[in-house]
Write a structure and sequence with these properties.
Length: 226
């Protein structure tokens, strides 16, 4: 059994996954109350499925980019549970979660985004090859206006966006915005990506795993297959 935690932004998500079924998935706007809300919700979804923390095998966590506080809270809880319960820990890049849940549209790039505050977005390019989206290049920070200057061919833009951001990006003839329900960064995709990594033995060290804040010079660790 795998528990997935995504605290990358003010939208918080949890999922329980057994490798075949998503048993529970919850996504809600937590604002800046991750510390107060995360642990009670973990307890609720375990209790709703008649599970104890000891019944878990793996814990997955979104590693960023994202808000400093949100990532710190999610990472701290995931690492504490992994160490205390001797669980395997798998970190997954947050933009990879957005990309994984985006449908494929032929002959279009994908630009996955999430809000970073101060009018900026974290963004990363993806291209469809074989049966999934593959990351291309290094993630970057940009305002919506700066993103418009980078988009020069038919492009899907997917991810958590405000109405203002959608209106700005929608000005480009090259931009294809998905319906808002498809913009939700779903923790079930985080669970799926982490499960695939875990089956391959690709796990992270709870002591050394750190959030990716996008200001770091080093490349983030990505989930396999994305």
């Amino acid at each position: 059994m795998l528990l997935a935690l995504d605290t990358s932004t003010e939208r918080l998500g949890l999922a329980l996954f057994d490798g075949h079924r998503v048993l529970t998935e919850v996504v809600w706007h937590a604002g800046r109350h991750h510390t107060q809300e995360l642990a009670p919700w973990i307890h609720r979804i375990l209790e709703a499925n008649d599970l104890r923390p000891q019944d878990l095998e793996v814990i997955a966590v979104a590693t960023g980019p994202g808000s400093f506080t949100g990532l710190r809270v999610g990472m701290s809880v995931a690492k504490a549970m992994a160490l205390a319960l001797r669980l395997h820990l798998v970190g997954v890049f947050s933009l990879d979660v957005t990309a994984a849940g985006t449908p494929h549209y032929p002959h279009r790039l994908l630009l996955a985004v999430l809000p970073m505050g101060r009018g900026r977005l974290a963004a990363g390019w993806y291209r469809w090859r074989r049966d999934h989206w593959h990351a291309e290049g290094t993630p970057f920070l940009a305002t919506p206006e700066e993103l418009l200057k980078r988009i020069a061919e038919p492009t899907l833009v997917s991810g958590e966006m405000s109405l203002d951001v959608r209106q700005i990006l929608g000005q480009s003839p090259f931009v294809h915005l998905l319906p808002p329900p498809l913009d939700v960064r779903r923790p079930s995709w985080l669970a799926h990506l982490a499960w695939e990594r875990w089956k391959k033995g690709l796990v992270d060290d709870p002591v050394t795993l750190t959030p990716y804040y996008l200001s770091q010079a080093s490349e983030p660790t990505r989930s396999s297959g994305i």
